[in-house]
Amino acid sequence: MKPLYISIPAWGKTYVDIATRFTIPAVFASLAAGGMREPANFIIHTDDQDRFKTALCGHNLIFRALAEPRPTQAQNWPVFKAAHRDAMAITPKGAILTLLNSDIVVSRETFGFVSDVFESDKIRVIASSGGIRATLCDTSAPPIGASAVDLNAWIWANKHSIIQECIWGKGRSGLPTVLFFEHDDGGVSMHYFHLVPMFMIKDDRSLSFKGTIDDDLLGCYGDDECFFVSDKQMAFAELSPASKVHSVGQLLTVDVMMNFWKDRFLPCHLRNFRHRISVLGNPQNTHPAADEIIMKLSRLPRAVPR
User: DSSP state, 55?
Assistant: First the structure.
């Protein structure tokens, strides 16, 4: 396997706790299941090196300074962006870089599957949801070392209120970057405008991006360079306290989605949204509402790459 670098920015007691209690053990379980014998290289941007030294004993640690000593809530996204940009800059050419946040639990198959995908010389990046948000509480800890099927089942049983507001026909999210569709056969699928380039092969290209990595970084890669996770090849839970909320507004309809996205989306967002991702069961067809959103956005001038 190519050398593996894993970036985890985490600061503040709450998120350092989540990273060391859940994120890192899940990564270890997946590395072991994938037969990874060489120690991974962890790039850690944090304000608590001691906790990570204990949690990552036996692995190669690369500590990096945060962009802010102790970021406030308003500074979180710029600091995440700076940490991921720094991780991309210091990862050596030819290595696999994994871009995580402090609150992501990966399924058991993850790193074995990533290794298999990158056997192809053409694929340079693996795009995924980056994590379906689940409610973190004392009574329901996420399963560590679970399969993608089991992890998705746990997420859906503990789905966060932000996710509930993104379910088609029920939700009223004021920030509909992802939609979940419940199918007649009992399955659930998702379509995501902001897919995450969570795994990449470092090369010589300029990886410029304006937002965080889930916004426009995938636009640096061509269609034939991307692998889109679609059918539970791996899964990710994003752990959030129940107190975290997004704004709510009108019931989500095709017109509401068009009004929200018509002046916001980029060609890479539309490319992302075209991909149906299976969450539960095995939905065979794209939901009609998703097809209609894709069709209408495809007709707008913004759908053409510039």
Answer: H
CA dihedral of residues 164, 160, 246, 71 (deg, nearest 10) = -160
- What is the full DSSP assignment across 105-136? EE-TTHHHHHHHHTTSSS--EEEE---EEEE-
CATH of the domain at 141: 3.90.550
Give me the number of domains the chain comprises: 1
pLDDT tens digits, residue range 32-82? 999 877 789 999 999 999 999 999 998 899 999 998 877 887 788 899 999
User: What do you get for the CA distance between the two ends of the chain, in Å?
Assistant: 36
Range of the domain at 91: 4-303
CA distance 48 to 128: 29
Helix (H), strand (E), coil (C) string for 92-107: CCCCEEEECCCCEEEC
For the entire predicted model, the pTM comes to 0.95
